[in-house]
Specification:
34% of the residues lie in helices and 19% in strands. With 408 residues, the protein is α/β, with parallel strands linked by helices. It has one domain. The strands form 2 sheets. A 10-stranded mixed β-sheet has the order 4-3-8-9-2-1-10-11-13-12, sandwiched between helices. Strands 5-6-7 form a 3-stranded antiparallel β-sheet, with no helix packed on it. β3 and β4 form a beta hairpin. The protein starts with 5 loop residues before the first helix and ends with a strand.
């Protein structure tokens, strides 16, 4: 494959936002056993937990507080009510035009994948727990990987009314691309997620969880150390050096050898405990090969459903072979658009492929991507199914594609 400037691709592109009818009963039973790899302590108590994370998440989502919330007075402000009305309108439109169609589609086309509580692996995700949760609602754990900063929720009680208004404005701006196009444009997101604006992926992930009917139970920073173990340990700051390394320091400004992340525990509408992890990590081979602790951590995953969308075609290139091979090794199902793994990398002796929608050449930001065999498959395969919703780079047209691969 043609060598590319990875940094350039990361800058210009948007990173975001059934599996088959497998009748092998022994495989399904085995995976039900494998699902015990999910952490049992995701939520220590369904009834008793500190509501501060959930209250803050509701406020920035435009969802009213309970009468017992310490934020119940400030959500009566005229500015917040205006924000809430706008948010309700946007989310209602999304649900009618996209989410309801995705949920209906997933009930049939992802029925097999969702019949087992298989975890979800989502590289190049940005903060997009939203689409992963809608398509794979039965997972207990979602693992998201990307380069966007982690950040944290705002301390609303310490902000004056003007500062809260400014923050809500930043939230609205950060969601514009998602509402319109279904994915985040990196160059826009870099600005929106700065510390003095939305402040990282955490606030957006919390908004997505709240707006899909969940309750935030706990948020805490974690990191994976050099031996591949997940640890709870505070770190002071995270930075990216000129070589693309993500570096973290503890409270004494001492460098920590590891990969920073955040763990968000939440409850679904029917009180099922679930967890989403987000790790800030560079997935290029040259850096993953020096980050063997994190590679070891990922290799501990049992079978997963992998999801790839608006992934900048990075997995088409040899520079991302480590994570591509990991997806192939760990996945029972892979759901992606053409910006994920190149069609020619799929071994048709190992994977059952189902195509959806219509294929069109990549948008102008990716002129080097050529997939003649995928285009040919769309023309010659009589089993291609329609796709009733739009996702990804071709959001403005009907030429949206998706591929579902199920391990044979």
């Amino acid at each position: 494959m043609k060598k590319i400037n990875i940094s350039f691709v990361l800058l210009i592109s948007g990173l975001l936002f059934s599996c088959g009818n497998n009748t092998d009963k022994q495989k399904v039973e085995k995976e039900k056993t494998d699902s015990t790899n999910v952490k049992k302590d995701s939520v220590t108590s369904v009834q008793n937990f500190d509501r501060k994370f959930d209250n803050t998440s509701k406020f920035i989502s435009g969802i009213p507080q309970s009468s017992s919330s310490e934020l119940s007075k400030i959500d009566t402000m005229k500015s917040w009510k205006s924000f809430a009305r706008s948010s309700d309108s946007s989310w209602k439109m999304l649900d009618e035009n996209r989410f309801s169609k995705m949920k209906k589609w997933a009930k049939t086309e992802l029925a097999s994948a969702n019949s087992v509580k298989r975890n979800v692996f989502y590289p190049f995700s940005g903060p997009d727990i939203l689409n992963a949760f809608i398509l794979f609602p039965n997972a207990d754990t979602y693992t998201l990987l990307a380069m966007e900063p982690i950040g944290e929720l705002p301390d609303l009680t310490s902000l004056n009314s003007n500062a809260r208004i400014v923050y809500l404005g930043s939230v609205e701006q950060s969601l514009n691309d998602l509402f319109k196009k279904s994915y985040f444009i990196t160059k826009n997101m870099i600005g929106h997620l700065q510390k003095n604006k939305v402040n990282g992926t955490v606030p957006l992930m919390c908004i997505f969880l709240e707006r899909t009917g969940n309750t935030i139970v706990n948020i805490h920073n974690v990191y994976v150390d050099s031996t591949g173990h997940e640890l709870d340990r505070p770190y002071k700051n995270v930075g990216i050096d000129a070589n693309g390394n993500v570096n973290i320091k503890d409270d004494s400004s001492k460098k920590i050898a590891g990969t920073p992340g955040v763990r968000i525990d939440f409850l679904t509408a029917d009180s099922k405990p679930k967890t989403v992890y987000y790790f800030q990590v560079n997935l290029e081979d040259r850096l993953l090969k020096k980050n063997q602790g994190f590679v070891s951590y990922l290799n501990k995953m049992k079978s997963v459903n992998s999801y790839l969308k608006s992934a900048s075609y990075l997995l088409h290139y040899n520079e991302f072979a480590v994570v591509r091979n990991l997806i192939f090794d760990k996945s029972e199902c892979i759901l992606q658009d053409d910006s994920g793994i190149a069609y020619d990398f799929f071994d048709k002796n190992k994977w059952n492929i189902q195509l959806y929608g219509r294929y069109a050449k990549p948008v102008a930001d990716f002129p080097h991507i050529k997939e003649p065999n995928l285009a040919k498959a769309y023309k010659s395969d009589s089993t291609v199914k329609p796709l009733p919703f739009t996702l990804g780079y071709h959001w403005g047209t009907k030429e949206v594609n998706m591929l579902r691969a199920v391990r044979k």
